[in-house]
Design brief:
The complex is a heterodimer.
Chain A (H helix, E strand, L loop, with lengths): L6 H12 L5 E14 L2 E14 L3 E5 L6 H8 L7 E6 L2 E2 L5 H11 E4 L11 H12 L4 H14 L15 H13 L5 E5 L7 H18 L2 E6 L2 H4 L4 E6 L2 E5 L1
Parallel strand pairs in A: 3-8, 3-9, 6-7, 7-8
Antiparallel strand pairs in A: 1-2, 1-4, 4-5, 9-10
Chain B lengths: L1 H13 L1 H41 L2 E5 L25 H11 L3 E7 L1 E6 L4 H15 L6 H26 L6 H15 L3 H7 L1 H12 L9 E7 L2 H7 L3 E6 L9 E4 H8 L2 H15 L8 H12 L2 H4 L4 H13 L5 H9 L5 H12 L7 H12 L13 E7 L5 E14 L11 E4 L1 H8 L4 H8 L3 H8 L4 H6 L18 E2 L17 E6 L4 H18 L3 E5 H4 L2 H38 L1 H9 L4 H37 L1 E2 L3 H7 L3 E2 L5 H27 L3 H8 L1
Parallel strand pairs in B: 4-9, 6-8, 8-10
Antiparallel strand pairs in B: 1-11, 1-12, 2-11, 3-4, 3-7, 5-8, 6-9, 7-8, 13-14
Helix pairs in contact in B: 1-26, 2-24, 2-26, 2-28, 4-5, 4-8, 5-6, 6-8, 7-8, 11-12, 11-17, 14-16, 15-16, 24-28, 25-29, 26-28
The complex binds adenosine-5'-triphosphate (ATP) and magnesium ion.
The site of magnesium ion has 3 residues of chain A, from helix 2.
């Protein structure tokens, strides 16, 4: 595939990883998000101000309906803010079109979802390879090396040629982590990555993420309402009714 | 792209049900397309071959000095274009053959339309009597006496019908009526046959001229004919076959009737119906009990037994009655009934016998059919025109004049594959000299002959009240004969029969060109060459391909193709709609997967391409399988042949079997159509899938 490479960003990728230790990745300023359901308007996010820098490991906590997913979707360019300023890698995304947003997702962000993470018809290897093929800037050998590297890191080196449905939920989330990391994103967004897992597996996933955060220097932003998992985070942003009530 | 193809194939394998469903639609669609295409194309090529090798040749040439279009076959009316002649056909042919290497033969031709009055029953019986008188057979032989008795019966019939007809349709002025009545009275006078024996020829002539025309039978026949040198025609048109009689001997003038015309128009109506019933029973597996068509035919036969009775003399009637009773073909009760009524005489009882005889059913049909041909047929006029007889033909010639020529009927022929074609089955064949005479194109010597009109011709013309009448009688069928053009007085040419053809420059209206290399491209090349040659040498001719020359048949091909394409279009549209729905459903099922792909950076066009590629792979894979099965079936059918069921199919198949074949070009055509179908069917679902946003996929997740 010949995807237009996000030229303005890809060359800087390696540089940022090494040079800037504290670099602003995500910057939200007075962000509001309103959902309109016919007559009723729901304000899912209210006046959000948030900055996340490289190498951070941030948890977004809050009860159900507090706006965690909405926040992550806006940061992940899956959803757009109603107003305010959203900058990703110092680039304002509010006015960008779908094509440009897709590029940002491909090149700068990694995603881990609660479930339905993987493409069911592809095996694990192919699933991890998928975003690399979309980027299309690596040779076959380079891709293979990367895939093996991350598969090893998440501990799935001998499951590579299985289909997603042959793996357990925890294993699937590990694949999702590997896939999210394989493109070397600035930040990995994970919306309740442990919600479908038992607590032990959930913890191991969070620990894995933490380890990778340290070894790969990739920033993580994940949401959860599980107190024990929140404890693992270095920084916790608490949401309530769409507002940030604490950030520590 | 590798990713898309890889993903597509994976997908098709995983979603087996959907793939299979769409696949089978494609497969059967292709199968039907291949079969339909093979059928129509083979029908067209088989028919083309038949036409090319039975009448038109590959190319037709005709004069360029006209705006009219040449139309060799397929005219449904007699309104032929008035083409100027090509002055010297023979020389033209030689010239073309010399200049253009690919020309194998040039066969001069012309097409026209003829009316024939083969004479009614009285004519026929008088002719028989004349023969006998000529031979000087003993006057009171039972055969001659029987014939005379028969003639008297016929005249009595005419007499008793005469007043009815005067009352109804016939418009005859009073003078004529008086002469008619006097004539009939004279022939029915008790001493008529005594006076006859004293002056047989005068009396024969009297009856032929005065009485025979009073019979109101619709005895007029009309047919198309090709004028061409018979030997050259036979050499170059391999589908030509003599059926009855012999070919026209070289150098002789004569006529070959089309077998199908001979059997359907010339044959006795009752015999014709029996033949048709037999064919319906044998070829179409019908039976008398259930088929209304056959029942109608039987009823018609029973209503027209007079046509058999009137054709038999008293002697034959007696013999036939005996045979019918002896063979116990007719039930005893009927005979008894007839016997009880004996006072009315044997002639009446034969009515009952025949009526009972023709009341056929499934059990006795074959037996009675054979009886008919064994016992009845020899006693009646089975064919109104006999092979070997001289037939007076009347045609519309140049500038509306009508011309008559008497020609010997040498036999009948058929153009194989077109035996029952309504378009070609009516074409008879005559030599070119006679053709030109009928067209009114004659040399100096011919003009001299015009003066010496033979009596026979005069008579045959006079049996129709006038030429106008002669044409208007058939006006229903011959819709476009321009009656105004017909000059009231006919130029009549008497041709001493079987005279050698005149050695003069042979002109013709058109000529068929047979090629050595008959391929489409070779034909096009020769067409060009002829038209160029005509220009540079001022030959005043133009060349058209056989399809153009075939007139209505050419259009028939167009209709076939139209049907084929409508069929393909219907299949395609149905397929597109079903596939479209299935794909939209599949896309909906894949919402989450597509959402994930989009979320992790797959752009919208990627999803579109993915869906299109999937569709193209499915269509081509199953399309090829379908096409292979189709080709296999076509191959099998091509080996064993598809039998034609009935006349229409025989005509469409140009023979009793159709051997379908298919070409790579056809397959290519179908594969292109298939890919268009696949793409059209996938575009909407693909755009639909591309609209799936990660967000929407995510909300499904909750
Ligand atoms: N697509 C939508 N349309 C309308 N309202 C929405 C939509 N998505 C979220 N909301 C509303 O916005 C608010 C925030 O929802 P959000 O999903 O962000 O909460 P959450 O913290 O992720 O909850 P949970 O823990 O249950 O996932 C809720 O009140 C929710 O009803
Ligand atoms: Mg949520």
């Amino acid at each position: 595939m010949n995807f237009p490479k996000a030229t303005q960003t890809t060359q800087t990728t390696q540089a940022t990883q090494t040079v800037a230790e504290k670099r602003e990745l995500i910057h939200l300023e007075n962000v509001n998000k309103n959902y309109h359901l016919g007559e009723i308007s729901v304000q899912a996010l209210k006046d959000i101000n948030l900055t996340i820098s490289s190498c951070e490991f941030v948890a977004v906590a809050g009860p159900s309906g507090s706006g965690k997913s909405t926040l992550l979707n806006i940061i992940g360019c899956i959803d757009t803010a109603s107003d305010g300023e959203v900058r990703i890698d110092r680039e304002s995304v509010l006015s960008l079109h779908d094509h440009a947003l897709t590029n940002i997702r491909l090149h700068k962000i990694g995603f881990i979802f609660q479930s339905f993470n993987l493409i069911p018809v592809l095996n694990i290897y192919d699933n991890i390879e998928f975003p690399l093929l979309l980027k299309g800037n690596l040779s076959k050998a380079e891709m293979k090396e990367k895939i093996y590297h991350f598969a090893r890191e998440v501990g799935l080196i001998d499951q590579l040629f299985k289909k997603p449905h042959e793996l357990s939920g925890g294993q699937r989330q590990r694949v999702a982590i590997a896939r999210a990391l394989v493109t070397n994103p600035y930040i990995v967004l994970a919306d309740e990555p442990t919600a479908n897992l038992d607590s032990i597996t959930g913890r191991s996933i969070i620990n894995l993420m933490k380890t990778i955060n340290e070894t790969e220097k990739t920033a993580f932003l994940f949401s959860t309402h599980d107190q024990t998992i929140i404890a693992e985070a270095k920084r916790v942003v608490r949401l309530h009714d769409g507002k940030i009530i604490s950030d520590e | 792209m590798r990713l898309i193809i890889h993903l597509s194939i994976k997908h098709l394998f995983v979603r087996k049900t959907k793939t299979f469903l769409i696949g089978s639609i494609i497969l059967f669609g292709t199968l039907f397309m291949v079969l339909g295409d093979a059928l129509v194309e083979s029908m067209i090529s088989s028919m083309s071959n038949s036409i090319v090798s039975s009448i038109t040749g590959n190319i037709q040439i005709y004069s360029s000095q006209t705006d009219e279009k040449l139309s060799v076959v397929g005219n449904m009316d007699s309104n032929f274009p008035e083409l100027p002649s090509i002055k010297d056909c023979r020389a033209m042919g030689e010239l073309l053959k010399k200049k253009i290497a690919n020309i194998k033969a040039v066969v001069p031709q012309g097409i026209n339309f003829a009316l024939v009055n083969p004479g009614n029953i009285l004519d026929v019986k008088l002719r028989e009597l004349r023969e006998k008188v000529k031979k000087g057979e003993a006057r009171n032989l039972p055969e001659i006496e029987g014939l005379k008795g028969h003639i008297t019966t016929i005249i009595r019939d005419i007499s008793s019908n005469y007043e009815n007809r005067i009352g109804q349709a016939m418009q005859v002025d009073n003078d004529e009526q008086t002469t008619d009545r006097q004539s009939m009275a004279r022939a029915l006078a008790p001493n008529f046959w005594q006076t006859f024996d004293e002056h047989p020829y005068d009396n024969l002539e009297f009856m032929e001229n005065r009485l025979a025309p009073l019979i109101s039978d619709d005895t007029m026949l009309y047919f198309f004919y090709i004028g061409t040198p018979p030997d050259e025609f036979e050499q170059n048109f391999p589908l030509f076959q003599i059926v009855k009689g012999e070919r026209i001997p070289k150098g002789k003038q004569g006529l070959l009737l089309n077998e199908s015309f001979y059997e359907s128009q010339v044959k006795h109506r009752i015999a014709r119906r029996l033949d048709e019933i037999k064919k319906l029973i044998e070829k179409e597996n019908l039976n008398i009990r259930d088929s209304k068509k056959i029942k109608d035919l039987i009823t018609q036969n029973r209503e027209q037994i007079l046509e058999i009775k009137n054709q038999m003399g008293p002697l034959d009637v007696k013999r036939l009655s005996e045979a019918l009773v002896k063979e116990e073909i007719v039930k005893i009760e009927t005979v008894k009934g007839a016997a009880a009524n004996n006072s009315t005489g044997p002639v009446d009882s034969i009515d009952n016998l025949l009526s009972a005889f023709f009341d056929m059913n499934d059990d006795n049909f074959l037996q009675r059919y054979n009886f008919f041909y064994r016992e009845i047929a020899p006693k009646i006029i089975l064919y109104r025109i006999k092979i070997g007889e001289f037939l007076p033909l009347t045609s519309l010639g140049r500038s509306g004049s009508t011309t008559s020529v008497k020609l010997k009927v040498y036999g009948t022929f058929k153009l194989k594959n077109f035996e029952n074609s309504p378009l070609i089955g009516n074409y008879s064949l005559m030599d070119l000299v006679s053709f030109r005479e009928l067209l009114g194109e004659m040399g100096k010597e011919k003009r001299a002959d015009m003066e010496s009109l033979t009596r026979e011709i005069d008579q045959s013309i006079s049996s129709a009240t006038s030429i106008d009448d002669l044409f208007s009688k058939k006006a229903k069928v011959v819709t476009k004969v321009n009656v105004n053009k017909v000059t009231p007085v006919a130029k009549t040419t008497a041709t001493p029969p079987e005279r050698l053809q005149l050695e003069e420059k042979e002109s013709c209206l058109n000529a068929a060109i047979i090629l050595k290399d008959q391929s489409e491209s070779a034909m096009k090349k020769v067409l060009q060459e002829i038209n160029q040659l005509s220009k540079s040498l001022d030959l005043k001719i133009q060349a058209v391909n056989w399809q153009e020359a075939a007139g209505l048949l050419g259009q028939l091909f167009f209709v076939f193709k139209l049907f084929l394409y409508i069929f393909i279009a219907i299949i395609s549209v149905v397929a597109i709609f079903i596939i479209m729905n299935l794909q939209v459903m599949a896309a909906m099922e894949r919402t989450k997967e597509i959402g994930v792909m989009r979320a992790i950076g797959a752009p919208g066009p990627f999803v579109v391409k993915l869906m299109l590629v999937e569709s193209i792979i499915t269509t081509n894979f199953f399309g090829v399988v379908g096409a292979l099965i189709g080709m296999f079936l076509v191959y099998i059918f091509g080996r064993i042949g598809i039998p034609a069921n009935g006349d229409i199919m025989t005509f469409l198949f140009s023979g009793p079997y159709l051997y379908p074949t298919t070409t790579w070009f056809s397959l290519l055509k179908i594969m292109i159509i298939l890919n268009i179908v696949g793409l059209l069917a996938a575009i909407y679902p693909a755009l639909f899938a591309a609209k799936i946003t990660p967000l929407r996929a995510m909300s499904h997740e909750i």
